[in-house]
Amino acid sequence: MMRGFPCRPRTIAAIGRNYVEHAKELKNEAPKNPFWFLKPAGSLIEMPAPIELPQGVGEVHHEVELVVVMGSDKATRVPVDKAYDHVAGYAICIDITGRTLQSEAKEKRLPWSRAKGFDTFCPIGPFIPKDLVPDPAKLELWLAINGEERQRASVSNMVFNVPQLISAVTHSMTLERGDLILTGTPSGVGPMNPGDVVTYGVKGVNEEFDREMTFDVVKGPHVGMDTLASL
Question: What's the whole-model pTM score?
Answer without folding.
Answer: 0.93
